Amino acid sequence: MPDSKILIIDDEWESAIVKAVQRRLEDEGWLTVIVKPQSQWMVGDEFESAAIYAIEDERPDGVLLDVRLGEHRDDQFKGLEILRQIVEHYPVLPVLMFTQYAQGPARDTAARGALRWNAPVDFIDKLASPEEVVLRLRRLMGSSPEIIPIGAHLQVDVGAETVSARRERDAGLEPVSDIHGMKFEIFRELAAAWYRSPGELVPFSRLERYSEGEEARASLRVRIREIKVSIGKALGVQLGANDLIVNVRDRGYRLAPPQV
Amino acid sequence: MGPGGLVRLVGVLVLIFGLVNLAVAPLIGKAMFAHLWGIEPLTYFGATLAIIGLTVTSVSYLISDVIRNRRQQAEEDQHFAERWTQVTQQYFDLFNHDLGRPLRRILGKEREIREQMEAADTEIPVSVRELLDEIEEQTPSFRLMMSNIQVLIELETPNTGETIQAVEPGEVVRRIVDRYSLVAADANKQIVWWSEPTEFGIVQCDSSAVEHIVTNLVDNTVRYAESFVEIGLTRDEKNFYIRVWDDGPGIAARYLPYLFDRGWTPEVARREERTSSGLGLFIAHTLSKRYDGDLTVESVTSPDPDHHTSFTVTLPLCSAPAHTPGDTQA
User: Fold this and answer.
1) Which residue ranges form the domains of chain A, and what is each CATH number?
2) B325: pLDDT strictly greater than 50
3) Is any Cβ of chain B less than 8 angstroms from the Cβ of A72?
4) Do the beta carbons of residue B254 and residue B118 sit within 8 Å?
5) ipTM over cut 0.85
6) Do strands B294-300 and A162-165 pair parallel, antiparallel, or not at all (unpaired)?
7) How far is it, in rounded angstroms, from Cα A62 to Cα B34?
8) Residues B208 and B247: beta-carbon distance below 8 Å
């Protein structure tokens, strides 16, 4: 989802922790917009009006929202009030609550109140790594993008049904030959699972749908070997058993981005 | 009308019947029983009934009064406990927030330093990298410690409300793997997970409880695994199962009976300095039982080449708390 716009509403926007997350979001190819109150007063009401205005004005694809906005006792849960307004007026806008109150009464209050179980709202605590924030936002905003970047050297274009690779970091992407049809479907399944959650493995049963013949497992193994040879050639490296597509304890395969 | 009211009504009716007997005894009693006793038996009968009726009515009033007082006292106690819980949780929330602030600053600065050093294109000294990694690696432990304290407050407070809701166990496992993958990768360990069926669907459970149980198990296995942690999610008609497997050295059979005891760690048994609080497995086990489920462990120790430890959480597809909180203190 490159070019997606993320709105960051946090009274600690100048802190190193928020900046690290902002940088990681931008590395992901997303645009970030930070909400700052117009006046010098950093109080919850100012944030509330600035946030609602920014959503209307910027039309973001996702929101990263703090719960505590300001030091005053009344602003302790101001973010939940903003959340309620977003859920009411923009029910499909994904919101990731980025807060120290990711568990306990504040989260429960929000979950029991305005939110349905399938509302695109989630909580993550502020000590989460920037990578964790990105993964959670990815899933909130939709788990199957049209273009899935895999590390710096590979990319899957789901619409065009192509896998592209580059040998050098600054070089352009070139389509990898020989990955079409069922081989593309196998690689797309693996890439989509990796994009959702890097530790997720795809069971053999799911991948064997893209195999032919009586020996589905053996056929799958052959196709995987062919995919690795084609991508290895495009990257200019020889991919071993533990590179790119890894067999995990004979349960399934998972993707491991190549370290070129 | 409750049983107390019914007893009272019967008592009053008996009393009235007895009084009526006493009233009519001088009129009809003599004619009826003149040849039997000096005072006609209807008087005795009426007086006895009146006494019984009066006694039953008074006792029923007395008992209902005692019951009402006790109920009122219990309600006051419960209100106090709820208020105490609320105050404790609010206090903990603030404590958590305020304690988190300096840690967020340290963590933010660590990430800034790391980025600046990487951008400077110079080789980062191994000792500096290890120091930065150490800060990053301790963060999930801190997060888990804070949430474990929160769970302990809830577990040891009577009448804490549980939230049974639609939960996607696959998403819960994904989040936990997100959290621990980087830490595991830094220690040259890998975490993988799978679910069967792949589209696992939803269950009715307490989302926080499932997350606490699995986080504590994963935190434990990541610590002891040699190189690999696997989380498998399966289900049948009644239950769903989360198996957390690691290829660590295994747990000796003599320690297994104590594994879920509060505060127990292998170091306690060996009289060494503790490296963890010993709360994680206790909390995971207690929460599993609380939701009518179970947590079991199976282990093979090295030097057996198949050495491993495997924890299996069993939870019903449709949960309801099996125990009241507060009865969990081990």
Assistant:
1) 5-141 (3.40.50.2300), 147-256 (1.10.10.10)
2) no
3) no
4) no
5) no
6) unpaired
7) 101
8) no
